[in-house]
Every structure is written in C-alpha cells, then in structure tokens.
Amino acid sequence: MCINNPSVEVIAGMDGSFPIEGAKQELHQLCVKKKWPEPIYMIEHESGPPHEMKFVSTVQIATIDSVLCMTGDEKSRRRQAENSAASLMILALHDSDYKFRHVLEPVVTLEE
What is the C-alpha separation between 13 and 32, in angstroms, rounded? Predict the structure, then answer.
C-alpha cells in the first residue's frame, strides 16, 4: 500500500464530485504531456460476495520531484475503481496547481 511508503506524497482532502468517466485516459495524457512515467494502478481492497464485488483502487504517478498517490472510492467494477482514483488524482493536481507548473528541462550551454 503506497500510503505507508515514506517516499510517497499522499494528496488528501478531495471530494468525489469530479466526473470519473475517461479519467484514466485523461491522467495518462497528462503524464505523457509532462513527460512523467505512466500511472500505476493497484487494487487495494476487494470485498463482497462474487456476484456483488466492490473494489478500491490506488493510482501512483512519479513526477519530477516526488511520487504522488491517490486512493479512489469503492466501486462495483475494477475499471470504475481505477477511474475513480484517476479522477481524484486529476482533481488534486488541478487544485494544487501542480499540472500547470512548467516541466523543468535541462539547460545546455555551449562553450566557445
């Protein structure tokens, strides 16, 4: 579980009002744009009988200066649980203004 990892920054305090449909794709596109590695999704919790399973997913992304982790809401399908985690991550990045920071690029100097 990434929350117990001391090298992981946890973003908390989000509400579930952000739309989750297509959030995995949007988060993936954001990571590509920022030149971050692909998001990593993990099912943190499964519960219920086989015909009424519930899933909780966590998404982890590595940025330039840290690793961010977000846990989504409980959902009845794995993909919905992953989209929930992704949507909360997007919302947290937006609220923290993280995704609007410029990507640091190496400075190249030419010696004469």
Answer: 26
Sole residue written with tokens 């846990």: 71
Structural domains in the chain plus CATH codes? 2-100 (3.30.160.20)
Tell me if the pTM is above 0.85.
Answer: no
Q: How far apart are CA 63 and CA 54, in angstroms?
A: 30
Query: Alpha helix (H) ranges present in 1-112?
Result: 23-34, 78-95
21, 51, 74 from 11: Cα distances, Å: 21, 32, 17
pLDDT tens digits in sequence order for the chain, 112 residues long? 343 333 334 444 344 445 677 899 999 998 999 889 999 999 999 999 999 999 999 999 998 888 899 999 999 999 999 999 999 999 888 877 664 444 433 334 445 4
CB contact at 8 A, 28 and 39 = yes
